[in-house]
Amino acid sequence: MRTFPSFHDLKPTLCRVLLAVCAALIALSVSNEARADLTITVSQVKRVSSTGGTAPTHPSGVVETNLTSEDCLDDVKVRFSLTLTGIDAQHNLEIWAGGGDCTQTTSRTGTQPTCGQVAPLYGSGAVLASTLVDVRVQDLAQQTFSATKQIQYTKADATACGLQGTSGGSTISVYFLWVGNPGTDPNGSSSSQVTLDMVGPDGPTNVTAGGGDRVAVLKWSPPNTSGSDISGYKVYCAPVDSIDASAQIDSGPADAGATDAAPVDAGSHLECADGGSIDGGVDDAGNPIDAGEIDGGCVLVPNDAGTSPPSPPPCPTPPLTNECGSTGSPTSTGVTVKGLINGVEYAFAVAGTDKSQNPGKLSTATCVAPGPVADFWWNYENAGGAAGGCALEGAPLMDGVMIGGASVFGIALLRRRRKGKRS
Questions:
Q1: How far, CA to CA in Å, does 190 sit from each of 43, 119, 289?
Q2: pTM
Q3: Does residue 291 sit in the same domain as residue 399?
Q4: Do 292 and 400 lie in a common domain?
Q5: Residue range of the domain that includes 384
Q6: Which pLDDT tens digit goes with each residue over 237-266?
């Protein structure tokens, strides 16, 4: 007869099984509790250079988390200091940004994601309780302003700096996610906000330039755009020859043939040794002359039979690397550029700047060659006068003459009054 163990005999075995089940349930509970405790805290945000050193200094008044076009072009990084708790070996730290809530799985997956990865994955083995995460400004710009989001990190380049379409700051959130499996809901998250402001305001209009002694006086009208965020202006300049030497007018006599331009009535035109309409301090043979003899080196040359004189080239646009003047006033309508070389033709253009010092669209370029101003004090000093100190550097000719004339008139009037008192 087959016998079965009694309950008393099975009691130790059942107890061991129950204890094992309870231990498993407790472990599972602890594991779930740990997953719920995965936290990320952002404790500090600052800018660093592309190599991790000190970033270029921001313009005065621009906060650290306001990222400018200069930051983007210089490949600056944003460094986030994170404090992490509840980390485990089953999760990775992912960094996302874009136009939506990146904690939502649908924002990071699908055919039209609204968020993109802005840094490589940080594996659990490389993540400590406190860690520094660097995010490039170019990657932030790419994923914020590009219509196509990269759901797997792809390094952006400087072309991303031109993707922002309108002026003014765009505040975005950078998300830090603890993710177990790619494309799933995070088990812990945090975010920090930065502002991308990389587009300057519309440029000024009616830009003109007048030459003085080693100076140029720039004048302009503010842009017509209402609500513009202009905080000041920057002036860019460069010698015309350094921008495009091939655009200069040919010097020398007119060609014998009728090949230069479209037929016109016979006539004459002015030609100068330096190819411009002002002599620039040399005669037609290239010999130095008195710099005060404006057009002294130019001669009147008959037009080719049935042809027009060559047309002067348009004023070229100076490069943005050649800033030569600025003003921090949004209501300013002009600035004087000093330290120029007399007789050298310069190209000038002006751009408005916003509160982040981003330059906007350049104005149409205008060209001028500075030169001595033959005003009263200039003539006085060149005739042997030694008073000095009163000439208005860069003042227009008529202003100098009027001021000089007024001074002479005032001295004469004072002498006449004194003479009348003595008599």
A1: 11, 15, 73
A2: 0.57
A3: no
A4: no
A5: 376-422
A6: 999 998 854 433 333 333 333 333 434 445
With a CB cutoff of 8 Å and minimum separation 6, the contacts of 267 are 302, 303
- Residues 178 and 91 placed together within one structural domain of the fold: yes
Q: Which residues contact 209 (CB under 8 A, 6 or more apart)?
A: 216, 217, 218, 219, 346, 348, 366, 367, 368
Dist CA 175 CA 186 (whole Å): 11
Residue 31 within any structural domain of the chain: no
DSSP string computed for 15-52: HHHHHHHHHHHHHHHHHHHHHHT-EEEEEEEEEE-TTS
Whether 232 and 326 have beta carbons less than 8 Å apart is answered as yes
- Note the pLDDT tens digit of each residue in 278-288: 545 555 566 66
Number of domains into which the chain is organized: 3
How far apart are the C-alpha atoms of 147 and 150, rounded to whole Å?
Answer: 10
Per DSSP, the three-state class of 79 is strand
pLDDT per residue as tens digits for the range 309-329 = 566 678 999 987 789 999 988
Q: Residue 240 and residue 315: Cα distance in Å, rounded?
A: 8
- Whether 114 contacts 98, CB under 8 Å: yes
State the residue for tokens 């030609």: 271
